[in-house]
Specification:
Blueprint lengths: L5 E2 L7 E10 L2 E10 L10 E6 L9 H13 L3 E6 L14 H17 L5 E7 L1 H12 L7 E4 L5 H7 L3 H8 L4 E4 L3 E4 L1 H9 L14 E6 L7 H10 L3 E5 L9 H16 L1
Parallel strand pairs: 4-5, 4-6, 6-7, 7-10, 10-11
Antiparallel strand pairs: 1-2, 2-3, 3-5, 8-9
Helix pairs in contact: 1-8, 2-3
Length: 269
């Protein structure tokens, strides 16, 4: 596939992006690189932020654009890689598994370190991406210099089960697959929910990661209660910033701008 940089916003020339595939381990991970215009010919970066999205979303969100634009415009030499989780966005896979999600995060992190030669790799994850990152730290280790989580799904299993119909629950009990998602549907079976249930974020300790972690959560989050996220942060002595009035996706531009500002300063500081 031919890859060309283009300006993110019409009239702006300081931030560029390109779409490309990370082909590793038999997977083709749909990815998006955002850099400063002055760095568009640069192949290596000391600082790379890996940005992951929530369940049913993709790398093509406005929040991804805004974060990449603000970070690379303010601090030269940073690059942002966003990618689609399995079965999300432009990804080719049809059935979602937690193992493949963790594999994607491994492969993208390896790409940042080995191909882009990053000395420091940061992680900015939202919702489901936050759950996967927290699980990754315990099961795979911590390759990240700093981690910022926005509305992390610290109660992922309970949240997903609450949105399933009784008909879907019956199908799962009978060993059948069901379709979940929003604009794009994906297949899941009972093993997916068993995996979520087997790893309860709230039952693990994150003291070893606390100094390099920040959590931001909206007070009006309708999917992941802020009380759960706050309790998780307090139990692990992690810096916690509530954003008054913000919902789960931070749809209000002012709320998103505040979150982006806090995360960028946390990474750069």
């Amino acid at each position: 596939r031919r890859v060309l940089f283009r300006s993110i916003y019409k009239g702006r020339s300081d931030t560029m992006e390109k779409h490309f595939d990370i082909n590793r381990g038999g997977f083709s991970i749909r990815s998006r690189l955002i850099v400063n215009e002055n760095d568009k010919s640069t192949r290596t970066f000391d600082d790379v932020v890996i940005l992951t999205h929530g369940f049913g979303s993709s790398k093509e969100t406005a929040g991804t654009l805004h974060f990449g634009e603000h970070l690379t415009s303010k601090y030269k030499g940073f690059a942002v890689i966003a990618f689609d989780w399995p079965c999300h966005g432009m990804d080719a896979r049809k059935k979602l598994t937690i193992d493949e999600c963790l594999t994607y995060l491994t492969l993208v992190t390896e790409y940042a370190k080995e191909v882009m030669k990053a000395k420091r790799v940061y992680n900015y994850s939202s919702s489901f991406g936050g759950y996967l990152t927290l699980r990754y730290l315990v099961e795979k280790g911590d390759p990240f210099t700093k981690i910022a989580l926005r509305c992390p799904a610290v109660c992922m299993y309970q949240s997903m089960m609450s949105y399933l119909s009784e008909d879907d629950k019956n199908k799962l009990r009978k060993g059948k697959e069901i379709s979940v998602g929003f604009e794009r549907k994906m297949k899941v079976d009972q093993s997916f929910f068993d995996s979520l249930k087997s790893f309860d974020v709230m039952k693990h300790e994150y003291f070893d990661f606390a100094d390099s972690m920040l959590i931001i959560h909206g007070t009006k989050d309708e999917m992941i209660p802020i009380e759960e996220s706050r309790r998780f942060a307090e139990n692990n002595v992690i810096e916690f910033i509530p954003v008054e009035g913000a919902n789960h996706p931070f749809q209000n531009p002012d709320h998103m701008a505040l979150a982006i500002h806090k995360i960028i300063e946390f990474f750069h500081g």
